[in-house]
Amino acid sequence: MKPLPKIVQWQFQKALSVSALPHPDADQLTAFVELSLPRAERSAVLEHLSQCSECRQVAAFAEAPVSLPAVELRNIRSWRPVLAWSMVSACLLIVVAFVLSGRNQHKELAEAIQQQSPAAQNSRAASLPDSSEVGTSAKAGTGRSSNSKKTAEAVQHQVMAYDMRQPAPKTPQSGAMEKDKFTQPASPELMAETTSSPKQAGTPSRDDATTSANDMRESFAPSVPNTSVPTSNIDDRYPRWTLNSDGILLRSLDTGASWQKISIPGNAALLHSIATVGADVWVGGASGALYHSADEGGHWMQVNPATSGKLLSDDVISIEFATAQRGKFVTSKQEVWATADGGRTWSKK
Amino acid sequence: MNSPDALQALVRELHSASGGEKFGLDDERFQTILEAVAAKYLPAGSSTADVCAFYKTLRVEELALARACAAGDEAAWNAFLSRYREKLYDMALHIAKESSAARDLADSVYADLYGMSRRDGERVCKLASYAGRGSLEGWLRTVMAQEFVNRYRKQRRLVSLDEENEEGVQFAAVESERSLGIDPRLEAAVGAALTALAAEDRFVLASYFLDERTLAEIARTLGVHESTISRKMDKLAKSLRKQMVVEMVRRGMSRQQAKEALEVDVRELSVNIREHLAPAHVQENERQAFQEQEVKARTSEGPA
Fold it and tell me: In terms of CA atoms, which chain A residue is nearest residue B195?
């Protein structure tokens, strides 16, 4: 932008330093700054401001400070290279793991085939589709890995075809064989855990190494108002808790086999959310209802979070407690209230 | 629909929405407040429809709170303090930028709000002047800004001349004798070009060139995007220059002279003006001394 000639600026300062118009009052200036003045009045105020440097200063000061996200941006920028390199490293690890697992599978299969009798090999070869079809599927199966291809070339053609059909189900075209293989439960216990009644579906053992993909998805799902799924109390020493669809609190002392209704003294509100940490239980509900029990539901205490002199009055739709002291809840107005001292004091974010 | 009955119904509705009842502000008193506000800002003889539309724009909840505080209602004061006590100091710090000055400013404004001063024996509470045109928080910030600017002006009147010089007040001296150094045709051309601008354009130019505000700040004040202000500034600078050249040519300058006149540096003008401002006997002495030096030089050189 080309600057104005200095002589113009100087003349400008002289011409616009004194206004004959009356100064707008604080109300008008506030409404001007907040862009809520009617058009005609706004024009009049603007006319005055264009001639009165003092009112321009007042208007400039009267604007609410902007909380610029500069610090956050710097943080994001400073983390960006770390994240980028982490992603590259993760990709490399995935590729290496994929290649190594592919090699091991091929090696094991090749050894197994070598141990089989020639008769069995012939019969299996006869049952396979013709070579051109096999070649196509083998090509599809090995498209992603040149190492897999090299390994496959080391064995006989027909045997190779069978060999390559094993990892093939990883592609979308492949199907039933791999599906059957991977959906087979590792143990009857896991089977019971993953396919049992809805009551147990939400309480998988998180420290179990064989946690299914569904469980993983559940554990990373965003927190939503919990109405029917029991809390993830991983320690069987403590009772399990849940809320039913009527907003009633339920407790199980036998790891979910049976459930009993728990009434909180003095509470008439519909309950929406629950969180447990060991023996500590937090329950939230309509119209700011928030209760805490530190003895597995033996005694309940109503918590009245307040910040800046304002009591909580909105529905508590989600509660999360990382420890007995540190936790937060979300209200129906999407306000996040947090505590770091077990609910004695709260701060609104 | 816009009958007096409708206006009455609207007032009742607004009173209910304001929550003034809990601060002892009854229906009748609330109506009196609204009528006073309307009388202040609406032209006389406004229609009922205009009054209704105006009432709907008011922040009635905050208006009721402020007026109840001004009336000395304790519950209203408690509500006011719980909402704004901490914010008052934050606002002051944002404006004054320095802790002790901010504390001083906040205390001063708080005293005005509480009504510590008296006029004709009656307690004067600043909150009684709040009309609900903008938010109460914004109004408090504006009141604080006004107080800060007033203090700054008073302070500036008391600074020493040395400090004034350091602040660069040479413009003031130049201004008083401007006509000695500036071509009147240029002055007239600049005046004409500036007068022809719209108020918003003058506001943008003044904010940018005189107040040294950033484009982003100006854009925020006007509620537009920064790029809009950037384009406007560019366009304004070009059109102003062009307009002034045209005006000067119209007043008898050649195009080249007009362009050169625009490039005159104000600092050069100030030097010329100082020469003009020098007392006459000083100038005379300087002229005589120069002539004596010239005579001596000719004498020492001798005849050719």
Answer: A15
